[in-house]
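Contributing: when you submit paired examples, paste them exactly as shown. First protein:
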Amino acid sequence: MKLYPIETGNFKLDGGAMFGTIPKSIWQKTNPADGQNKIELAMRALLIEDGDRLILIDCGIGKKQSEKFFSYYDLWSDYDIETSLALHGFTKDDITDVFLTHLHFDHCGGAVQQDTIHGGYELSFKNAKYWSNASHWDWATNPNPREKASFLPENFVPIKESGNLNLIDLPTSGNYLNNSPLGFDIIFVDGHTDKQMLPVIRYKGKTIVFTADLIATAGHVPLVYVMGYDTRPLLTMQEKSDFLEKAVQEEYLFFFEHDPYRELATVVRTEKGILLDSTYSFTEVFG
């Protein structure tokens, strides 16, 4: 097995929304805001090369939305998924599986692209199976008013219409699924959105957890640092508490999807609770 961080692009969101009830005077120490109160964020995917499979975890915002839509999110880097894959010798056609942690636009927008020949939409990864779960799929396709702006049908309905949608079974008990069809374990969490999936990957003697939107950046590690976007913030806190406890016990290495400057991190138990320990680039840990 080999892992590759895949930079799909960077964007900005309102810092207050990203940190909920935490005062700006505190959160800006780790995530400084610009003049519009927006903070810099990544949309980092993870590529798993495992035998004949090439599994992509999340795929960024994509390119098919309007100029007006993108103007809301201040895209600010030259990264895109094609060039990032090419750095490792791959193309989008090589991807065999696309695992979507959840269906918010900044995580799955790149799954579907415009069909410039026939009009409409087509799958961006034409040779891939796409993976979600039935509970989250129903949640996204029948959105509540709070999340409706984040669930854009053009990002995922074409997946089902293509016949390439695959649904992962939920755990029979608890929130932990051992040995999913993609070869890694999955933690299911419900505070941010219903049945978000966090991959747990064993790699070179480490346990890597793709933290998605449970812990968006290194600045979100403290327990009460919960996003205003979360649909069930008190549940997020309980899920984070359980997750952080397990992270200390099992020495998890966090893989951040949304931190533009810190790819990996560890946590440590202190008298003030479980907090950020050290951060690393992927190459510092794995070469």
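Second protein:
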Amino acid sequence: MALQYDLIALDVDGTLLTDDHQLTSKTREAVREAADRGAGIVLCTGRAPVSVFPVLEELGLSGTIITHNGGATVDSDTRKIIHQYEIAPQQLEPFVAYCRTNGVHFDVNTAFEMMVESLTPELTDMYSKFHAAPSILGRGATIPEGLVKFTVFGDKELMDHVQEDWEKWPPSLLTIRSGDFFIDVHHPEASKGRALQQFALSQGIDRNRILAIGNYFNDISMLEFAGCGIAMGNSPDGVKEAADVVGRSNAEDGVAHALREFAWS
């Protein structure tokens, strides 16, 4: 059976993994089969590199990963940054002030380090599910240099409210909903789609030979760039509308089914 795509871009949370952050054997086997058939596999995620490495290991893969929603592209073998979009600390000052005033939890991220002002047991548990262990800066700390992403976390109602407020602000930075409980802020040129385009160009791969699979609003740019963009069945309507195909959910091994239906024939 002939391989239909040379590069397969996969979102991680809500796509490759189940809602309880597990990689099923069916999905792992399908991704491995695609790689064994010769497809390049690139994970494209809002996670930091250190939170992606365990997933890569479980898949038995290595190579380039697109992290922080395209904010940093990293070589997983050498742990070197291939490209990153930095945010100037002063650009984040209004977001930090808003969070401190309204009691919204946030973290700040360089390519490899995550930092918070404080942690609770609930937050520690949340981060551990993503293989993340943030360092504590302390309340009122100065915003560090070299950041690629700023993320806020809270219940869906709170995140809806924050999103509504921030959408009224001048667009100096890009704010994007990366999950029901998360909003990410990064450089306006950073996106999964742009990072995927840069990587494809470096590999000499035509966009029509790229298959992308995702489930949330931060995946739309790569779904639209790829020759075939597949939205998971658990995606919001806006994501489904941006995709070429809507597949099964992450609770139904949607990635495995999509790969076996579209990646080779």
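If you have annotations for the second protein, write them as plain sentences, like these:
Residues 89-102 form the longest helix (14 residues).
The chain has a mean pLDDT of 95.
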